[in-house]
Every structure is written in C-alpha cells, then in structure tokens.
Design goal:
By secondary structure, this protein is mainly β. About 10% of the residues lie in helices and about 30% in strands. It has a domain at about 30-80 and about 95-130: Immunoglobulin-like. It is built from 1 helix and 8 strands. A hairpin with a 3-residue loop joins strand 2 (about 40-45) and strand 3.
Length: about 140
C-alpha cells in the first residue's frame, strides 16, 4: 500500500519538482561524477579555519579562492573506469569533480590565506581582517 502524497500547488508532479531541484542545485544531485565535500569551520583569535577531507585527491588538482568573504573550493579527483560486471552492494565513494562555496563568518584577508594538505585533509587558514577581530575598549572616567 502506498502512502498519500500531499498536493503541492507549486508542482504538478514529482517529476517536475525533481527537475527544478536538479536544475538549481546540480551539486546536490545523486551524481557519481560530482560531489560536495563536507567541511569543518571554526575560528581562533586571528583566523577562520576550514578543514575538509579530500582523500585520494592531489593538492595540485584543487583550487581555492576567496571573493567577498566567500570561500570556494573546487577540483577534480581521479575518475576510475567502471567495470559493468561488478555487482555492487553499495557504491558510496564519490569520485570526479567537486565544488563547495562557503560564506565566511568574518571579514578576512584573502591575500594572506594559507592552505596545507596532510593525510587526506585540506586545512585552510584565513586571517581575519583587523576590523573583524575582537577589540577591548578601555572606558575613560572623567571626574568633575
């Protein structure tokens, strides 16, 4: 027995909804040739730090850019030719191209960004702009 599907006036059919989803969010499709890497983002006193796992992807195949405090990470992983005779039980390893765009939580100095790849983890250290760093303001007391 199938469950009821609630009618949504925005879409006449599920196929139409799926088409809109795939047209506007191609990176989120279940496509074995594109994927969106997961990230960890945190900060210390002077930097915004972004880490992502890119195991099996050569650092020279990854491009990092920052524009208007938006970090973009894109690249290409090695594509393995598929063997049709394999009877997969699961196929979850993502290969191929990837793209991730992240709004940074503070204004940054993009020209001083550093990136290090170690053990399959890409770590990007982005210095905060001076105006984004916390400031302690001393209160002056005027006596009459």
């Amino acid at each position: 027995m199938r469950g009821l599907i609630k009618w949504n006036p925005l879409f006449d059919s599920l196929a139409e909804a799926e088409k809109v989803f795939n047209d506007f969010l191609p990176a989120l499709r279940n496509d074995q040739h594109n994927f969106v890497p997961a990230i960890d983002m945190y900060e210390d006193k002077n930097n915004v730090i972004v880490e992502t796992q890119l195991a099996g992807i050569q650092p020279e195949n990854v491009q990092i850019s920052i524009d208007n405090d938006i970090l973009c990470i894109k690249g290409e992983g090695e594509r393995h030719s598929e063997v049709d005779e394999k009877n997969y039980y699961r196929k979850e390893i993502r290969r191929g191209s990837f793209y991730r765009s992240i709004q940074l939580p503070a204004h940054v100095l993009s020209s001083e960004t550093k990136a290090v790849a170690e053990d399959g983890v890409l770590k990007i250290m982005i210095p905060k702009a001076p105006e984004a760093q916390p400031k302690t303001i001393k209160i002056e007391s005027k006596k009459k």
